[in-house]
Amino acid sequence: METIGFLALGLVLLVAGANLLVKGAASLAASFGVSPLVIGLTIVAFGTSAPEMAVSIGAAFAGQADLALGNVVGSNIFNILLILGISALVTPLIVNQQLVRLDVPLMIVASLLVLLFGLDGNVGRSEGAVLFAGILIYTVFLIFQSRRETDADVRADYAAEYADKDTDGSIHYLRDGASIFGGLFLLVLGSQWLVGSAITIAQYFGVSELIIGLTIVAAGTSLPELATSVIAAIRGERDIAVGNIVGSNIFNLLSVLGLSSIVAPSGIAVPAVAISFDIPVMIGVALMCLPIFFSGYVISRWNGALFLFYYVAYTAYLIMAATQHDAMNDFSMVMLVVMPLTAIALILSAYRYHQLKLKSRAQTPL
Fold first, then answer.
1. Which end of the chain is more exposed for a tag (fewer CB within 10 A), N or C?
2. CB 24 within 8 A of CB 186
3. Hey, which residues does 123 pair with through a beta bridge?
4. What is the pTM of this model?
């Protein structure tokens, strides 16, 4: 019970720390004249992945590479299948065209890179540096793009949320500084408690740290994304709900895994089961986004239910594999039939939408 208590408390500290860090950093950046839109696209979007960063780097330093890898891969699967699934059930989600043209393809490429780098059983420091360089280039591109933003409503929304409202500069700086350092402290402490508790639970139940990272730790560190996307969907900010998830997944792959590989003494070890199953599932989930997002640039409630179905199926498989359940072979055979049928249905749906769009354009008088 004590271990479970520390696990729960670690999750609470991670969420609270991420919130403090984001608010403090965003407000401080605004006070130095940084564009509110840039703040939203960088600090806020990446700040929701701060728990993953804290846990994975902590696990890498502790020599628990399986936990670090499982956290990133599991979080990316959790973000799309569960968080987008729940958010789409709340209300159909709007997909910005830039996500389909740039961000989702980048997420897919980054996922493939992780698979390629891990084929030899290890993501080394040099490979981690390549991944981390990718997030730097991506961030610079986002800043460049944000300066071309002409939508006054978008700028007004960010300004209302992050612009400096304090008249006393010294109090403002002290408050933001305290928020940043307080957030970092809670993140570090929470990650230590979470990693330690997760390792203890894995040892007690005789399951691998990879499984714990893919499930409990991944779900816990994704709580900020869950809260952000669901609240955004409820408030009607449906494009933010999707953008937050895709941006966080890119950050997890390029920054979290990249930096963890750099600081780990021998890089991040990649177990054979991760290469043969978990990372391909992550890539498959990323690929699944393209036809869904492209079909009218809307994630429907039906799509949300489909995402949730696959998350339940994935989690059930992990549990059955860990316990060597008798039903695992039958379950695997059923999923080998269901998954190709789903892929065909999604591709046909996207194709029909594309054809209808072309037909509509052809019938529109010039």
1. C
2. no
3. 268
4. 0.81
Residue 81 has pLDDT above 80, yes or no: yes
At 238, is the secondary structure helix, strand, or coil?
helix
For residue 18, CA distances in Å to 24, 52, 153, 281, 347 come to 10, 10, 27, 28, 38
Which sign, positive or negative, has the C-alpha torsion 117, 122, 125, 131?
positive
Q: Map residue 264 onto helix, strand or coil.
A: coil
Q: Provide the H-helix boundaries in the chain.
A: 2-31, 36-39, 45-47, 50-61, 65-78, 85-90, 97-98, 104-118, 125-146, 152-162, 169-205, 209-212, 218-221, 223-234, 238-251, 257-263, 272-273, 279-294, 301-323, 328-363
Angle at 60 between CA 58 and CA 61, to 5 degrees: 65
Picking from 262, 245, 199, the residue whose alpha carbon sits closest to that of residue 96 is 245
- How far apart are alpha carbons 107 and 247 in whole angstroms? 8
With cut-offs at 50, 70 and 90, classify the pLDDT of residue 167: very low
What are the C-alpha distances in Å from 226 to residues 15, 20, 83, 222?
11, 17, 6, 6
Max alpha carbon distance in the chain (Å)?
71
> Whole-angstrom Cα distance, residue 84 to residue 147?
28
Distance, in Å, from the CA atom of 262 to the CA atom of 197, rounded to the nearest integer, reads 24
Which SS3 state, helix, strand or coil, does residue 299 take? Answer: strand
CA distances for 117 relative to 20, 110, 167, 183, 361, angstroms: 34, 10, 50, 33, 44
Which of the 8 DSSP states describes residue 298? E
Residue whose tokens read 């979007």: 45
pLDDT for residue 326 is more than 90: no
Identify whether the C-beta of residue 295 lies closer than 8 Å to the C-beta of residue 349: yes
Q: Exposed, middle or buried by CB within 10 Å (0-12, 13-18, 19+), for 169?
A: exposed
**Inter-residue contact 53 to 259 (CB < 8 Å):** yes
53 has a pLDDT exceeding 90: no
* CATH, domain range 2-358: 1.20.1420.30
The amino acid at 17: G
Structure tokens at 26: 């965003």
Return d(Cα 238, Cα 228) in angstroms, integer: 11
What does pLDDT average to over the chain? Answer: 80
